[in-house]
């Protein structure tokens, strides 16, 4: 039996499970609904830019920030992501629905630079940005965003996706 990233087997009437630390996954979909890294489900329909996940928390000098720019879509008052910006040090990677992803220098910087390796690939409808700090952003260029963080980010992040500490009750504190 597979549970998260661990495998459990029954042997001699007892369950034995691996104890790997799993990636954190935050999912944003629809108008928008959120499932935080810790599994908390909520709806939030704001018409503005929102930090989905960052490690610039708790007075720490961080390495990344993911921001969604939400705008009204349709006639029912729902909002959708107009763009997603991934900030890596002094470099911004910008994803927009009908454009090829592009990079630019971060605000206040003359040159866009990051020491991190990163790549963009396309699979079907999805644009996937992978960064070698254990960060992956998957976007369908419309209403679905998935952010994956490696276990070493656990307890070191904040934003709309929560703090990735395995406790959904404190995601907004």
Question: What descriptive keywords fit this protein?
Answer:
mainly beta; seven-stranded antiparallel β-sheet; single chain; 0% helix; 173 residues
Task: Describe what you observe in this structure.
The strands form three sheets. Strands 6-5-4-15-14-13-12 form a seven-stranded antiparallel sheet, with no helix packed on it. It starts with a strand and ends in a 24-residue tail after the last strand. With 173 residues, it is mostly beta strands. The chain has no helices and 15 strands.
In a nutshell, what does this entry contain?
0% of the residues lie in helices and 47% in strands. It is mainly beta and 173 residues long.
Gyration radius from CA atoms, angstroms: 17 Å
Main sheet specs: 7 strands, antiparallel
Mean pLDDT: 91
The DSSP helix count reads: 0
Shape call: globular
Q: Span between N and C termini?
A: 34 Å
The share of residues in extended strands comes to over 45%
Low-confidence stretches are none
